[in-house]
Design brief:
Distance between the termini: 22 Å
Structural class: alpha+beta
Shape: globular
Low-confidence stretches: 70-79, 685-691
Number of strands: 37
Mean pLDDT: 85
Radius of gyration: 30 Å
């Protein structure tokens, strides 16, 4: 169903045309695609914007309607290649799934000054504690600290047990409960790495949109000759504590940024073979101009060096050869197709202008979770003996000094266009405080009003302590860079272009209309020790460094803890209790090994509320007296919270919050009794076709009900 919002049009000049965005009244903004053809004189004008599933579908300015002139997917645009009929879009499987992100945020205070404080008596608010009993429905494991005679925390297999007492840390309980509070109370997503960008390198990707984005940015075909028009090279240098600059290495004489050289020529000079890890070496070479070189049936233009030396011979210049490793392969006709060229970057000219590298570019490079461990790390290399390190980079199309991505080799991993925050499409009024923030605090404005104590293993559960360590299976999983899993995908916009599974229309982190799927939770599983323990001796010996040892607490163990709260409203206390108690068959997940089925727990709360008014009136009777208590049903508070949220989200026709479709997904994910088969929630193997073909993860309800309507 389409939603109409009001906003203001913002138009900024660009190198060729101009960019258009709309700033909504809630403070959020979105780009408007060029296909809408918004006129330049619309800058600053009020507009009504219609969105469907978060995607702008119509813009009305001064009574005139602007719509896309072309559909999202154009048929037959890829070299007139037709779409393939009767090829279904593959579905992915994973041990996790997502609770849809709430578009609307429910607030409880209009500004931070309304949030209750600790320094005054609040007659209408509630103070007390919640005792919680935690039952392990599966084995659970939280690693102990590294101080117990372990050099590395990974080496310590003990369960979390400071001072010798097994316990679940209060911080872990706090984290999982806050997550449920955010979901149930329609609060703002608490994004820790919102300013982060992921990276991609996609020559052979099944997502043709992503493949095209990479090729379009790094390469250009000119009369069937491939060139590198945007790829630049230079030397990165660290200045001061955390400042980096790049000195460009452009050669005006040869009109090139870098050179290529056959690996066999390099082998004869640096005394190394081609089966090496990535590295770089100082050399001297004779520079040449760019020429067209034929690679099997492909023509590529670059400057190909044929003479290098360890010495500064006559006519040679100084530079570094960059070895990007060895990759074997073969063409369709079975001729060798392995990597055979290295890169060379010349030393910059003395008058080369330094270009600063923005801090966010450096942080994104550091956080590239998919970069190979064998790759050259530019920043770590700088922290070593090298004062300058050869590198490649690309700049903004509109500004040659605005570096947007850096890498160690020519075809390096590019940063996506958008930061993660961009994909969180939520509406809220500025300065308002949602329920989760109000309860758990804000670092800069006000403190938390809930305090989670550690939950200690009960004495009658001491027999549940595992004495001998076990080795769990490797906890590998598709990372958030698997955009087909982490971003909303719409099958009606996806088309298959080949029987091999090439697809158009997948949203990725470059897409202007992409949205994050929501809150990630792990499925419960039926497991026994043999299912999560690695028994393959060959794998254990071959990949010993990737494995760890753990001593989980066994199924059936019970822990006791306490949550203290001060000055919570009835709705806030209800949100906390709703997230603790859940429904009868619903359980939480905690600790390590959740993908393998570990960590399922059932929390049973009991509530004590102090009569603060009576306590203060009896102040002079002495502080040793027990605070007055009120015996009020937990369900009364939960019902107050439930009603408040349903009214705010226009779901008053529902009998309970659990009847709202979005919260039904939470119920399905949390149901310990009615869970999917284990083979429906496993990690896909690398060789699995669904993984290669970027299969789409179905919603929890779609997996459970197989297309049937949720009851």
């Amino acid at each position: 169903m389409a939603k109409t919002e009001k906003g203001k049009i913002n138009i900024k000049p660009a190198k060729k045309e101009f960019s258009v965005t709309v700033s909504f009244n809630d403070g959020k903004s979105m780009p408007i695609e060029k296909s809408f053809k918004i006129p330049e004189n619309a800058n600053g004008k009020e507009a009504e914007v219609e969105r469907e599933r978060g995607v702008i579908s119509k813009v009305v300015i001064d009574g005139k309607t602007y719509e896309k002139e072309t559909p999202h997917i154009q048929p037959n645009t890829r070299k007139n290649e037709p779409y393939v009929n009767n090829v279904s879009i593959p579905e992915a499987i994973a041990p996790y799934n997502f609770i849809p992100l709430n578009e609307k945020i429910v607030s409880i205070y209009s500004n931070k000054d309304e949030v209750p404080t600790f320094d005054k008596f609040h007659k209408d608010l509630f103070t007390g504690y919640i005792d919680i009993n935690i039952e392990a429905k599966t084995p659970i494991y939280i690693r102990d600290t590294a101080e117990n005679n372990a050099k590395d925390n990974k080496e310590n297999s003990d369960f979390f047990s400071p001072a010798g007492r097994n316990r679940i840390p209060g911080s872990s309980i706090r984290g999982l409960i806050r997550n449920i509070v955010e979901i149930a109370s329609y609060s703002k997503l608490n994004f820790i790495d919102g300013n982060r960008k992921f990276h991609f390198r996609s020559f052979m990707d099944k997502s043709l949109n992503l493949k095209d984005a990479y090729v379009d940015y790094m390469l250009k075909s000119n009369n069937n000759v491939i060139e590198y028009p945007k790829l630049k090279a230079g030397y990165i240098v660290k200045k001061g504590h955390n400042k980096y600059i790049i000195i460009p290495s452009f050669s005006k004489k040869n009109n090139c940024w870098f050179y290529r050289v056959e690996q066999k020529i390099v082998n004869g000079v640096i005394d190394n073979n081609i089966n090496i890890k990535q590295s770089f070496y100082k050399i001297f070479f004779k520079p040449v101009e760019s020429t067209i070189n034929t690679h099997h049936d492909v023509k590529i233009k670059y400057a190909k060096v044929t003479q290098i030396s360890k010495n500064n011979d006559n006519g040679f210049i100084e530079g570094y050869v960059i070895r990007s490793g060895y990759v074997s392969g073969e063409h369709k006709d079975k001729t060798p197709a392995g990597k055979h060229l290295d890169w060379i970057i010349a030393k910059p000219q003395d008058n080369a202008k330094e270009i600063p590298v923005a801090r966010n570019v450096i942080e994104n490079y550091k956080n590239d979770i998919n970069r190979s461990a064998d790759s050259i790390d530019l920043l770590k290399s700088l922290n070593g003996k090298s004062k300058e390190v050869p590198c490649f980079y690309v700049t903004d199309n509109n500004n040659n000094e605005n570096i947007i991505s850096i890498g160690h080799t020519g075809m390096f991993r590019l940063a996506y266009k958008h930061e993660l925050n961009y994909f969180v499409k939520q509406k809220y009024e500025s300065n308002t405080i949602d329920i989760a923030m109000a309860i758990f605090g804000n670092e800069s404005d006000f403190a938390s009003r809930v305090f989670f104590e550690d939950a200690y293993l009960n004495d009658n559960s001491k027999d549940k302590i595992q004495n001998n360590p076990v080795t769990p299976k490797i906890l590998s999983e598709p990372k958030p860079t698997s955009f087909q899993l982490y971003l909303n995908q719409y099958k009606e916009n996806i088309r298959t272009k080949s029987i091999k599974g090439d697809m158009e229309g997948l949203r990725d982190y470059n897409s202007a209309d992409a949205e994050i799927r929501g809150y990630k939770l792990y499925w419960h599983k039926n497991i026994n020790a043999q299912e999560y323990v690695e028994t393959d001796s060959i794998a254990l010996n071959k990949h010993s460094s990737q494995y760890t040892k753990i001593k989980p607490i066994k199924t059936g163990a019970e822990f006791s803890g306490r949550i203290r709260f001060e000055n919570l409203s009835e709705v806030e206390l209800g949100a906390l209790l709703f997230s603790l108690k859940l429904k009868e068959n619903l359980c939480h997940k905690i600790g390590m090994g959740k993908p393998l089925g570990l960590g399922s727990i059932k929390i049973t709360p009991s509530l004590t509320v102090f009569n603060i008014e009576k306590r203060y009136s009896e102040l002079f009777d002495g502080w040793d007296t027990e605070p007055s208590k009120e015996n009020i049903s937990i369900d009364d508070y939960i019902n107050s919270f439930d009603k408040y949220i349903r009214e705010k989200i226009d779901a008053k026709d529902k009998k309970s919050l659990w009847d709202v479709d979005r919260i039904k997904e939470l119920e399905i994910m949390s149901d310990f009794e009615n869970k999917p088969r284990n083979d429906e929630t496993e990690y896909m193997a690398i060789k699995e076709d669904k993984n290669k073909k970027r299969g789409i993860l179905p919603k929890p309800s779609e997996l459970i009900f197989k297309g049937e309507k949720i009851q």
